[in-house]
Amino acid sequence: MVFLVGSTLAEVLWQYRQSEKLWRFLRPAINLALSSILAICFYCLFFLPLDFLLTEILMVTPKLPRLVNFSALSMFVVFFAIFHWQKFFKKRTAYFFILFFVFASGFFYLGYRKQKLALEYLPKIYRLDSKWGIQGMIVTVKGVNFGPTWEKGFVLAGENLMTIVDWSENRVVAEVAVPTKFGIAPLVIIRFDNLVSNSLDYEIRDPKTLNTKY
Prior knowledge:
The protein is α+β, with helices and mostly antiparallel strands. It is built from 5 helices and 9 strands. The chain has a 5-stranded mixed beta sheet with strand order 2-9-8-4-5, with no helix packed on it. It has a 4-stranded antiparallel beta sheet with strand order 1-3-7-6, with no helix packed on it. It starts with a helix and ends in a 10-residue tail after the last strand. The mean pLDDT is 84.
């Protein structure tokens, strides 16, 4: 069906290609379609890497709001819609530039999706309610993908295994157990399927030093 409609449309356009009325109608539509295509390309080349940086590398937020994505794409469409395409396409290199731009954005999008899917469901720690503690103190770990309540994992601060108080998909509450050693160590979540989260520094202090050193 799509092929028949497309071939019929192409035949009609070719037959009436000299009609000024037809091109007066088609120019805005072609301009909008081209603007939309290039906006999607810009979105893939510039916005998606920024999204990946914020959500998967810097881990500022689990995901950007849909309004931010829609606003960015709309801004690109408006930018390209007001661009003077007639002057641009007078140069022969313009067509090669457009093709390269489309292929490059497609390549970036495929790479983005591959990496995004690989990292999207890994456990991630976003913040701790405290950066230090002593034996018996509670630390709350907030993040995503920790696993369901009925399949608890582990909280490790270096070699120190903490006691689980409460466990949910986005929040784990743990108690600092008797430490094997004091000092700053990377705190991680180990999910029930043995997947390990990113680490944040957590210091287990010696209670004897609290009154003198701190």
